[in-house]
Amino acid sequence: MSEAAATDHATTTGMSHNKLAMWVFLGSECLLFGALISTYLVYRGRFATGPAPGDIFDIPFTSVSSFVLLMSSLTMVLALSAIKRGDLRNNRIWLLTTALLGSLFIGGQVYEFTTFFREGLGYTTSPFSSAFFTLTGFHGVHVSIGILMLMSMFISSLRGSLRKEHSETVEIIGLYWHFVDIVWIFIFSVIYLVPSPTS
Amino acid sequence: MTATTTVEDVVGQPLGVYTRPRGGNGWRDWITTVDHKKIGILYGVAALFFFVVGGIEALLIRLQLATPNGTVLGADMYNQVFTMHGVTMIFLAAMPLSAAFANYLIPLQIGARDVALPRLNALSFWVFLAGGIVLNLSWVLGGAPDGGWFGYAPNTGIVFSPSPGMDFYALGLQMTGIASLVSSINLTVTILNMRAPGMTLFRMPVFTWMILVTQLLLVFAMPVIAVALFLLAFSRLFGARFFDPSVGGDALLWQHLFWIFGHPEVYILILPSFGIISEVIPTFSRKPIFGYPFMVFSGIAIGFMGWGVWAHHMFVSGIGPISVAAFSLSTMFIAVPTGVKILNWMATMWGGRIKFSAPMLFAVGVVSMFTIGGLSGVTHAISPADTQQTDTYYIVAHFHYVIFGGIIFGLFAGLYFWWPKVFGHQLSDLIGKVNFWVMLVGFNLTFGPMHVLGLQGMARRIDSYSPGFGFEFWNMVSTIGSFLIALSIAIFVVNVIRSAMKAKGQPPCGPDPWDARSLEWLTPNPTPVHDFDEIPVVESLDEFWHRKYGTDENGRVVRVASAEEVCQDGSAVGVHLPSPSFWPIVFAAGLPFIALGLIFNLWLTVPGGLLVVMAIYAWVFEPVDDPDAAHGDVSEVADTTEEAPVV
Ligand code: HEM
Ligand SMILES: [Cu+2]
Questions:
Q1: What interface predicted TM-score (ipTM) does this complex get?
Q2: Residue B331's domain spans which residues?
Q3: Cα separation, B285 vs B288, whole angstroms
Q4: Chain B closest CA to A105's CA: distance in Å?
């Protein structure tokens, strides 16, 4: 993300290279998740002899963890506005909170995965199970990478190398973070809210 | 620091724990370079190397098929060879050769000094190379991929393809895919964000436009193939059930994902070549391109419509009559913008004072050969006819007329055209013409007869045929033709070596050898490290040409300035350039370990992963510009122009 340093010259669109690159990348990510969600939609009813989606989903639990993830977008916004004001202390607090909320979500996912596994839904049980774990797993990996980036920024900030003039870095990582949240809204609706087949 | 240094001369200073590499021309400078020109050359060299590898595989195929009951390759080996031939030619030769042109030329054509994210650009190249190496390692590590380049499920599953070949396919292509994605983001940002003052979108050369459309196609197509390859890899490595019909896995899912990527991919392959000849044809016809807006908009139209035709690859896969009818129609429609382009090239040549130098011959080769391929393409847009043609040599003939006739000829046009720009000397035009004619004859002898063979019913991807079906004669002709193609490549190599030897010790060829039109020729040949002495201010399409020509009082075109007067002389000093970096290649070096680890022994992924993580962190904390390099330089020239208002 530090390429921005070189581009103190004006750009054609007025947006920095890094930010524009992140937008283009997120455009590409839409298709990645689009293809994964399609795969899930094709396979949600093909659970072979294993558990069906409608049998095992715990909608209240996942709703809570989804809420946690959504709140992390709010704290991300607060982190950005803090660093833009030059308030490094609050920036650190909100970065850390965002990372913690993200970790809570990942913790929920790990718990969910292990529960499902105990109930007989392994990765290789059926096309449905493979598609479910792959889609949610990919999303989880995205969140985890986001957490790593947040923590890296947090540590840089502790060491004094994340200052007001770097607010764009926070903004770009924020773009990524919000994207991952929005994708989760789609995934959550498609997987959990649309009534699932039962066996 | 003295006032007359360029970044190249500046000694790298120790920055933290390692020494920053510095510019120059030794091998270390090549592996750490972030210069778009060097990266372009690296892409070109690697792509031509893989082109030869894929070509040798093609010759093996043709030797096997020269006579009935061929014994050159066994059935199993034949499967591996044709699969790797297709994969190599598409992903390791044609795409990177286009990337070579894009990398080298895009900054120059839009009046910039580099791409937007120079280190990521280096990363793209090294990851692509690592992917190519991984794919080809399969030959010695248990067997090459054998499921065809489009790897249909469930044929590629562990049951039907037990060798690790398809694992190499899934992981190797994943790597080249990442490379393409990164480079497409980079070039998109470059074109949108780094245009010189006055370089509006509609003053961009057609080549730049076609590259922009190509990059956007890549941005949206690569993630789809990435998902398909992940599903395949997870099925083979971790036992996922995506393509297992016994539990309801759907073979059509793979086909859809593959072709949603695959059809845009054919435009990803062809549009750069279209861009190249859209530069070559006006130059050698001494006329502006006919219908520039139509050229641009037909390119954009192809970019959109290319997403709506994928299932024409699946007419016999049982997708149902409604889908077949719809995709049949959409496929016929997409021929329209392509036809527009062909007519525009012909109209550009019409009435021009055409000079048939080698680049122009290859360009005209594209227009004619691609048209043949396009016409046979329309015959299989008609789905009942396609039911007869699919999986026969008629298809092989079709896609080679577009791929070889349309892409390879175009890339050769580009090689001959821009050779002086890159290396400062021209290739021999006479040898170039011989190269062209041998290639043209060989090409038509090789692939023309395949139309006949296909309509006679000869199936593709079958390792041999029995005597008595009437296949013997045309197969022999085709094999002879393929060796003529090989000869033409040898002629090209001779041309390269001979011209380089003749140019040794000679001064560079001077500016503007072709009386060209676009901005890249404003810089001297070969291009200096810093590209432009001064960022040009652009006033029109074909800016370079307009600086050389004006009109007299009767409205006739007259020469107003010589190339020497117009071109920059490359003498600027102290231009601030991004510093080289070790981390792109370190990152790329980690990936093959991860890939091999996933296939053979998970422990190998540990060093691979560590390398990747280390490279990422070192990268992030390494400033783009070595703070000690080239600061305090006098780059008045550069700075004043770069601060000029940007349009
Ligand atoms: C020396 C020139 C070439 C010759 C003689 C040649 C020959 C062949 C033949 C005979 C096949 C059919 C194999 C089969 O289906 O049994 C084939 C397949 C193929 N070729 Fe070529 N080829 C040449 C150049 C190229 C180039 C330049 C490209 C791409 C840029 C290319 C791309 C492909 C692809 C994609 C396939 C399909 C592979 C598959 O069925 O999976 N070829 N080639
Ligand atoms: Cu197609």
A1: 0.94
A2: 3-581
A3: 8
A4: 24
